[in-house]
Amino acid sequence: MNTTWSRFNVTSIVLGFAFLYLPIVLLIVFSFNESKLVTVWGGFSTKWYVSLFHNQGLMDATWVTARVGVISATVATVLGTLAALTLTRYTRFRGRVLFSGMVFAPLVMPEVITGLSLLLLFVAVGLDRGFLTVTLAHITLTMCFVAVVVQSRLISFDRSLEEAAMDLGATPVKTFFQITLPVIMPAIVSGWMLAFTLSLDDLVIASFTSGPGATTLPMKIYSQVRLGVTPEINAACTILIAVVAVGVIIASIANKRREVQRQLDEQAAQRG
Amino acid sequence: MKSLGSIRRDFAPWNDPNAKPYIQFDNVTKKFGDFTAVNNLSLTIFEREFFALLGASGCGKSTLLRMLAGFEEPTSGRILLDGQDLRGIPPYRRPVNMMFQSYALFPHMTVEKNIAFGLKQEGMSAPDIEKRVAEMLRLVKLEQFAKRKPHQLSGGQRQRVALARSVAKRPKVLLLDEPLGALDKKLREETQFELMDLQQNLGLTFVVVTHDQEEAMTMADRIAIIDKGEVMQVATPAEVYEAPTSRFVAHFVGNVNMFEGKVAERTAKTTRIAGASGAQIVVDNAVDTAPGADIVFAIRPEKIKISSKKPVDAVNALEGEVYDIAYLGDMTVYHVRLDDGQMVRASTMNAARITEDPLSWNDRAWVSFRPDAGVVLTR
């Protein structure tokens, strides 16, 4: 492997990372700004974090977002897993192609269209816009992502595990809960996390389908930014970034550890 | 005593007209769409028998096993186990257990939990489960691995866990799908004998699917040779080898020389066959053949003698030239091109370390065999 750093390599990596992370770094830096002016550095301070926790509007929005995220991710995970099971297990039913197309369409559907059509639906059935409608909309949005993640795991799932369980006397229901579900659980968990993250940062669909009293954090931030960016918003975003980053880092460390442990185990087994 | 019987001398229920069949395939057909995997097949397996289904991949042998386990239902015909029709009985209610080719060990459970899984489904009490699991671990010599997960085991150990798990419930019948397929040669040979011991000790009926003829010959009481969803022959390993009933079986099991020809003359005891290119051979009468009928004489390489001079008293002696020699240590295999162009394979045990007058490439040579050394096939 080539380990020397050529000037070209250094330049391209700096440029690439700057492109990706400079805006975020700027945001984080200015969240610790003493000055009220967003673009003028006035010294280090954490006062915006303190005032953030006293901003009732933002705190309410955070609470709404968390609830919408957890509920919609959970329901989407159940539905997405069921869809994935059907798509991988019953490969020959009528309309399978149509069904799989329909499950995955929201992946590529412009969010504006999804949001608008959901709005029309809610208006048509007379559902008052609010917490329930945002949650429903997010379930629609995230279900297909869960289905994709779980399906890719199911494709490599060894069906003879289920056959072995049934052969040993487990009914199909017991087989599902004792064998299939535990084996595909990592995929279901990452599906849930993906759904939660998507729900967390969705602005477009939430804007269409939300109503009074159910303002999510992205909506709140967006509306406040229109009145001018305050350092408080910077602080809120920094916390959001920290939460997501910590989640991602923990997940990848856990994954890496499992992988290493597994390799060690397998080497040990080979040695006998 | 002349015999082409079983190795276990006192065990031959298939010869006993009063023996009750244990597993019966009754005109079973299985179709997958347009493809016929099993074609109107009938088969009888007896209690405590070690029965092998032998065939190339895709011949339908695994489908037979899966129908017995309940993962597939026959399209037509029926399968009886101990007199009971199995149709409609789901896999989890059948008194048979299967050992899977991939072993199908539950990756999230320890060895112990894997073995206990079937017993738990049965509703056995915890202390009894513990006792049975310990017994099974002892049986497959994996006591110190009880707490390991499958990925922490070697291939041979996984195989033994799979075996322990499938016999833990004491099934009436144990089905084994290519049980030794994933093991290396040395381990495979050891495990063959372990399986045979296990079957004897537990007194179970074993049905094993394999594509490895040597494996089937070593382990089974009887072998069914399957081709294109049909049974070609069901017989003991010795019968299959020494008295195949068709060209397919003769070819499939071991090496064989085939002499094609027509019945030239038939006396009270022998049949003279005229080969396509003029060579004449005389063989014992076995099957009814009319003069002029097309037949094949099949003979195994080790039943053919090879010599540099014409044998004096041989009934059948054909002359040719040594084309190829393969020295295998325990024996030597000669390929001789007869003067009529046919290739003959003859093998000789190297019983002595030093041979006088050894044959070499392109030497003139005679091959000879007794009239009863092979079989006459009509199909």
Automatic annotation (TrEMBL), chain A:
For this protein, the parts annotated as crossing the membrane are 12-32, 64-85, 97-125, 131-155, 176-198, 233-254
Give the UniProt family note. Belongs to the binding-protein-dependent transport system permease family. CysTW subfamily.
Where is this protein found?
Cell membrane
> Which organism's genome codes for this protein?
Mesorhizobium qingshengii
Q: What is the lineage of its organism?
A: Bacteria, Pseudomonadati, Pseudomonadota, Alphaproteobacteria, Hyphomicrobiales
Q: What Pfam families does the database record attribute to this sequence? A: BPD_transp_1
Task: Specify the ABC transmembrane type-1 domain's residue ranges.
Answer: 62-254
Q: Which InterPro entries match?
A: Bact_Polyamine_Transport (IPR051789), MetI-like (IPR000515), MetI-like_sf (IPR035906)
The molecule here is called ABC transporter permease subunit
From TrEMBL, chain B:
Pfam family name, one = TOBE_2
* Location of the ABC transporter domain: 23-253
Any single GO molecular-function term of the entry would be: ATP binding
EC number(s) reported in the record: 7.6.2.11
Q: What does this protein do?
A: Part of the ABC transporter complex PotABCD involved in spermidine/putrescine import. Responsible for energy coupling to the transport system.
Instruction: State the family it belongs to.
Output: Belongs to the ABC transporter superfamily. Spermidine/putrescine importer (TC 3.A.1.11.1) family.
Q: How does it assemble?
A: The complex is composed of two ATP-binding proteins (PotA), two transmembrane proteins (PotB and PotC) and a solute-binding protein (PotD).
The name under which this protein is listed is Spermidine/putrescine import ATP-binding protein PotA
Q: What is the lineage of its organism?
A: Bacteria, Pseudomonadati, Pseudomonadota, Alphaproteobacteria, Hyphomicrobiales
